[in-house]
Structures are given as C-alpha cells and as structure tokens.
Amino acid sequence: MGLSLWGFAALAAATALVGFSKTAVSGANTVSLAVFAAVLPARASTGVLLPLLIVGDLVAVASYRRHAHWPTLLRLFPAVAAGVVVGTGFLVWAGDAVVPVSIGAILILMACVTMWRRRAAARREGDDQGADREPGTGAGRAKARSYGVLGGFTTMVANAGGPVMSMYLLSAGFDKWRFLGTSAWFFLVVNVSKLPFSAGLGLIDGHSLLLDLSLAAFVFPGAYVGRRCAARLDQRLFERLVIAATLLGGVELLLR
C-alpha cells in the first residue's frame, strides 16, 4: 500500500493495542481505529483492521472462554445481525467524513447513559452491582436488543462495536472476568460474520490481506501485556478504564 517506515511502525503499535484491548480494557482499540484511519483511507482501514481484530478475538477466547455468559450472547446475536445489515447499507451511502462523526457521537452518548444509569442505581440501592439481574428481565431484553443493533451497526461501519458492547455489559453489572469472557466470544462470532460483507464492499482484498499478514504478529505481545494487566486490575478501576476509553475514543472520532 506504499506505506512509509513510520506509517508501518504506527500500524504495528496500533495492532499491539488491539491485542491489549481484547485481553484487558475493551474500548481501548478506538485508538487503533484512529491510527489506522490516519495512516490509511478511512474505509480501507476498516478492511485492514478486521482480520487483525479476529486474531485478537481468538487470543481472547483462548484466554477467557470459560467465563462467557451464553444467555446474554444468545439474546444479543439476532439484534447484532440486524445492526450489521443496517451498517452495510450505511457504508454504501456514507463517505469517509460521515463515518467517524456518526460513530463518535454514538460512543459518547452510550458512555454518558451508562454513567448516569450506574449512578442512579447506586443511589437507589447503595450498590452499583444491583443491575446484575437485569439481563433476564423484560427491560433487560429490550436493552439487549437496542444495544445489539447499535453494536452491530458500529462494528460494521468502523469496527467500533467494542465500546458499545462494553457499555452494555457494564450496565448489566458483569464482573471483570465474565465481561472479558462474554465480549471475547461475542466479537469472535460477530467479526467472523462480517468478513463476507466487508469483502463484498471491496474493503478486504489481496493487498489488505498482505498487510494483515505482516502485522498479525504484533497482536500477541499486546495481548500478553493485557492479560497481565487484567489480572491486577480491581473491578472498580477496570470499569472506570473501560468508560474512559470509550469517551476518549468517541471524542477522537468527533474531532478527526
């Protein structure tokens, strides 16, 4: 793709951050999105990044597969599929300038709603884990559908579904390990399902896959660091880092 040495180095560092985000702080890979979109054209960058995200998903599943909450995953997948279809249509219509602004606004809104909900729950119950029973209720199912559609849309349009789903899992009161295990399986399934859509849109081709091949190895050191960090983070700090990463990613996309 005619990359300079500095451009390739920036992509390599962003790829390592993909590994870190998959095994530690989901949402941190919005920085990776920004770097890829700065070095490559915005639409092309999503096609290059998707296979690297799948490599990170495989590492995360291998690390946290036993902690997944499958009832939540089964509730989310149909809504996510609808969001992916909507996102594919949006990509046909939208230009490079529209995509980051749209996703940035969604991420900031989701982060603000999550913070408001958690504070309201803490005031009502004196315990910010009180939402843990919510996924099985009627309201929880409705929320899963709305977050699922948004997650599918954002992951298809800009590979930015991680922050949206992070906000859902936090609002549902998931602890750190169940959060990581559920999100690992979720994004492995979703990202693999996106491959034919991305290829059909021309976002993935021989050139992009060749670049992916040269970058894939950088996922593993980032994932290793992420696993070490995740083991040392307490629950409250973990949640704050996830929300902060989402907000920063949303602001960056708006200002791009």
Automatic annotation (TrEMBL):
Location within or outside the cell: Cell membrane
Signal peptide per UniProt: none
Keyword presence, Aminoacyl-tRNA synthetase: no
Membrane topology label: Multi-pass membrane protein
A Pfam family this chain is assigned to: TauE
Ranges annotated as spanning the membrane: 43-64, 76-93, 99-116, 147-171, 209-225
Keywords carried by this UniProt record: Cell membrane, Membrane, Transmembrane, Transmembrane helix, Transport
Tagged with keyword Ribosomal protein: no
InterPro entries tied to this protein: TM_pro_TauE-like, TSUP
Chain segments annotated as coiled-coil in the UniProt record: none
GO cellular component: plasma membrane
Family membership: Belongs to the 4-toluene sulfonate uptake permease (TSUP) (TC 2.A.102) family.
Cross-referenced PANTHER family: MEMBRANE TRANSPORTER PROTEIN YDHB-RELATED, TRANSMEMBRANE PROTEIN YFCA
Protein name: Probable membrane transporter protein
